[in-house]
Amino acid sequence: MRSKISKILPLSLTFSPKGRGKGEGVLLYAMLFALCAMLCSCGYTTGAVLPSDIKTVHVAIFKNSIDITKEISAKDKYEVYRPNLEVDLRDEIVERFFLDGHLKVAKQGSSGAILTGEITHYRKAPLRYQNEEVREYRISLVCDFRLMDSSGSEALVEMDQVTGDATYFTTGSLQKSETAALTDAMQDLARRIVNRVVENW
Fold this sequence. Notes:
The chain is of the alpha/beta class. It has 4 helices and 6 strands; from the N terminus they run H-H-E-E-H-E-E-E-E-H.
């Protein structure tokens, strides 16, 4: 124990049962306490803490900016488009805020913050083949979002390229429809967005 402390504290302040007065003992313990506090405060954090007066959030419908004319792969040449995707995503985000409990969802004009965003990609990538037929796909839904103050002039939290994923099989006992997999991907994306908004609460 003494050898470990000696590597951190000056030799003159390391503990010895002989020849040390009360003043040096108090100084030693004070330095040890300060050292422990410093080490315990070195955790990694990302993002800023929301102002304490923000208790409610309005979730706006995200803009759907998916470019369905853009080629993404040889197998699935274009981005996927689904009508009302932005509305369904908003509903999932609202539900996630309700389950999380940190912020209450409120109407526009009466909330402490406004969540806005943009859906940029909806991709379907093949994962597994059998006899040259795709048996498993990954659905990826990507968006950018901003949490603004009630006036819309200050960004409290912002993040780009947040991705929600889900996989599904086209055959077998684990078979699932693309619609069901998309719902899973939206729920995953909503969870990531809400977690990012309320982290360090």
